[in-house]
Amino acid sequence: MTPAELFGEGINLMFSGMGFVLVFLLILIGAIGLMSKLINQYFPEPVVVPKKVSKNVPNSTALQPVSNDLDRLRPVIVAAIAHHRARHSN
């Protein structure tokens, strides 16, 4: 075979390979889309219903200040750091 024929066969092989990959990817996209529709049809995501706030609870007790949480967590954090330092001091 001459170099021109080899080059032509190489181009032919390249385009046929790219065509097969393109067809495969299009089939894959279609299959994924079909599976997505089937999953959503037979297993829909549950609808989240927001909880209603009862009118009996005053707003001041519903919202606690953030500093109160930090004050409660500070001894726990100090104890955890002390425990970590005691284990890894050697």
From TrEMBL:
Q: What is its EC number?
A: 7.2.4.2
Enzyme category, top tier = translocase
Write down the InterPro entries for this protein, in alphabetical order. Answer: Na_pump_deCOase (IPR005899), OadG (IPR023424)
User: What catalytic reaction does the record list?
Assistant: oxaloacetate + 2 Na(+)(in) + H(+) = pyruvate + 2 Na(+)(out) + CO2
- Recite the UniProt keywords alphabetically: Cell membrane, Ion transport, Membrane, Sodium, Sodium transport, Translocase, Transmembrane, Transmembrane helix, Transport
Q: Which family does it belong to?
A: Belongs to the OadG family.
Q: Where are the transmembrane segments?
A: 12-34
Q: Which cofactor does it need?
A: Na(+)
Q: What is this protein called?
A: Probable oxaloacetate decarboxylase gamma chain
Gene Ontology BP, a term: sodium ion export across plasma membrane
User: Where does this one sit in the cell?
Assistant: Cell membrane
User: Native species of this protein?
Assistant: Lonepinella koalarum
A Gene Ontology term for the protein's cellular component: plasma membrane
Q: Membrane topology for this entry?
A: Single-pass membrane protein
Q: Which gene encodes it?
A: oadG
